[in-house]
Amino acid sequence: MKGVVVVVVMLSLSLSAVAEAAKVEKTCKAAAATDKRVNVRMCVSQLGHHRDSQKAEDAWGLAKVAALVGVNNADLAADDIKDLEAGRGIPATIKPALAECRKLYRGVGFAFAGAHDDINDRSYVAGEARLSEALSLTQLCNAAFAKVGVPLPQPLAQMTADSIQMAIIATAITCLVKETAATPPTTSSSSSSTP
């Protein structure tokens, strides 16, 4: 009897995981259809692996997850910057750019966190504005390095690309949610009868 229960539980968990993956993929593809900059593979990977995606029942939940992934990426980028600043052999010419990026990434994290809160409150326009701020601040880190004529060092370059992509993904999904919320329910013409 215990064996049957274990098999049923494992089958249930497996079906749940398949349904969750399909929901994430469907949402990511819909986001890419509205914004060609959305990298579907990254969207599915990042959202599908976040622990809160299991609780996300719809695009609204996944928009919040995307914002949380953005917070995580910003925190990782800030850690990478600290490691780069502490490393030996860092040219003096890029130290000001690193310091600028460290400050900017604090703002990126706060912007993503604010977007999460706004989306959670269903304030989609405010959420989009915060995501736009996160994108802008991330791009300013690129500009800080361009100003000194040096490309972003790894792993900061990858974290910056990921943060930019998450801002784009979160914005596209938030737009889907906003459009869905703004669409009035359709009524069937057969339900209205004329005497």
Short note summarizing the structure:
This protein is mainly alpha-helical and 195 residues long. Helices cover 76% and strands 0% of the residues.
Characterise this structure.
The chain is mostly helical. It starts with a helix and ends in a 13-residue tail after the last helix. It has six helices and no strands. Mean pLDDT is 85; it is low at 6-19 and 188-195.
Biggest β-sheet description: none
CATH superfamily: Invertase/pectin methylesterase inhibitor family protein
Strand content: under 5%
CATH architecture: Up-down Bundle
Low-confidence stretches: 6-19, 188-195
Number of strands: 0
Helicity range of the residues?
Answer: over 70%
* Rounded radius of gyration (Å): 21 Å
Shape: elongated
Mean of pLDDT: 85
Name of the CATH class:
Mainly Alpha
Number of helices: 6
Strand/helix succession: HHHHHH
Count of separate structural domains: 1
Q: Please state the structural category.
A: mainly alpha
Distance between the termini: 61 Å
CATH fold node name: Butyryl-CoA Dehydrogenase, subunit A, domain 3
Protein name: Pectinesterase inhibitor domain-containing protein
Family: Belongs to the PMEI family.
GO molecular function, one term: pectinesterase inhibitor activity
Signal peptide: 1-21
